[in-house]
Amino acid sequence: MAAEDRLRTYRGKRDFERTREPSGGPAPGDGGRPRFVVQIHDARRMHFDFRLQVDDVLKSWSVPRGPSTDPGDKRLAVPTEDHPPAYEDFEGVIPKGEYGGGTVIVWDRGTYEPLSHDRRGRPVDFAESLERGHATFRLHGTKLRGEYALTRFRGRDGEDAWLLVRKGPAGTGHGTPDPRRARSVRTGRTLAQVAADGGEV
């Protein structure tokens, strides 16, 4: 499926004359390893958006409590629409009344290594591993580093949901921050500072 088709839902929910969110475009990276980004989104409910570049889109999940560096913490991850790779760079204020209205900061970003294998230890295409409902990967971010897994399950309401879990030993460093005190890896600003600036960089 072409990226244009995969982004139809994303574009259909947004008025790009009112929001500064990108309508498309490539990731800001170097074109090497696939990218990831974790954004904090102060919308109707505060949450973290976890996004992995798969082919020419960012596969996206809303993680209410954010990713954890503790393997014992299984974090709910609710799938959302695919986003364009350029969204990795988005930080600002989505206008009130628009889809997802609220403030967004780039909490972490970097590259990741796909690690999914079949039962015989052979590598599995990452998009295929997500289709099957279990994907493992190693993050190389400013704050998040190490191996993680996404596993799909059927929720109580019958809808698909996922768990985002740290694999192996507990990670060191930042863990899950207080979202209101967290700072952007892109600009060093907090949510409150971005909101006060009107989203301007």
Keyword list:
201 residues; single chain; 4 helices; 9 strands; mainly beta; globular; eight-stranded antiparallel β-barrel
What is the makeup of the main sheet? 8 strands, antiparallel, barrel
Radius of gyration: 16 Å
Instruction: Summarize the helix and strand pattern as letters.
Output: HHEEEEEEHEEEH
State the end-to-end CA separation. Answer: 34 Å
Mean pLDDT: 91
| Structure annotation, total helices | 4
Helicity range of the residues? 10-25%
Q: Tell the overall outline.
A: globular
SS strand fraction: 35-45%
How would you write the strand order of the largest sheet? Answer: 1-2-3-4-9-8-7-6
What is the count of structural domains?
A: 1
Give the structure's gist in a few sentences.
This protein is mainly beta. It has helices at residues 3-6, 8-12, 126-132, 191-196, and strands at residues 35-42, 46-54, 57-63, 75-83, 92-94, 102-114, 134-141, 145-154, 160-166.
Description of the molecule:
The protein is mainly β and 201 residues long. The protein has one domain. The protein has 4 helices and 9 strands, in the order ααββββββαβββα. An 8-stranded antiparallel beta barrel has the order 1-2-3-4-9-8-7-6. The longest helix is centred in the middle third of the chain and has 7 residues, at 126-132.
How are the SSEs placed, and which strands pair?
Layout: H1 3-6, H2 8-12, E1 35-42, E2 46-54, E3 57-63, E4 75-83, E5 92-94, E6 102-114, H3 126-132, E7 134-141, E8 145-154, E9 160-166, H4 191-196
Antiparallel strand pairs: 1-2, 1-6, 2-3, 3-4, 4-9, 5-6, 6-7, 7-8, 8-9
